[in-house]
């Protein structure tokens, strides 16, 4: 199973909650915004969606 991660840059405030919570280090902050640099490692656990108060993250199964 692989996942497609979409981050709404207009909503992301760069608080880094997704960076901290992700068990497989999918995210990195770049210029104050979250970027899914290791999308291939995503397990689909949706922890990042739960902690994102801005609702900036969408994950779809591929
Ligand atoms: S769904 Fe889980 S594994 Fe995938 S990016 Fe979010 S926290 Fe990381």
Automatic annotation (TrEMBL):
Keyword Transport recorded: yes
GO molecular function: 4 iron, 4 sulfur cluster binding; metal ion binding
Entry-linked SUPFAM superfamilies: 4Fe-4S ferredoxins
Domain 4Fe-4S ferredoxin-type: 3-32, 33-62
Membrane-traversing stretches: none
Record keywords, A-Z: 4Fe-4S, Electron transport, Iron, Iron-sulfur, Metal-binding, Repeat, Transport
Pfam families (alphabetical): Fer4_10
Alphabetical list of PANTHER family matching this protein: ADENYLYLSULFATE REDUCTASE, BETA SUBUNIT, L-ASPARTATE SEMIALDEHYDE SULFURTRANSFERASE IRON-SULFUR SUBUNIT
Name this protein carries in UniProt: 4Fe-4S ferredoxin iron-sulfur binding domain protein
């Amino acid at each position: 199973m692989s996942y497609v991660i979409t981050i709404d840059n207009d909503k992301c405030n760069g608080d880094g909650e997704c960076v901290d919570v992700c068990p497989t280090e999918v995210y990195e902050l770049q210029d104050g915004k979250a970027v899914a640099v290791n999308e291939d490692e995503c397990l689909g656990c949706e922890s990042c969606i739960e902690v994102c108060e801005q609702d900036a993250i969408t994950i779809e199964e591929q």
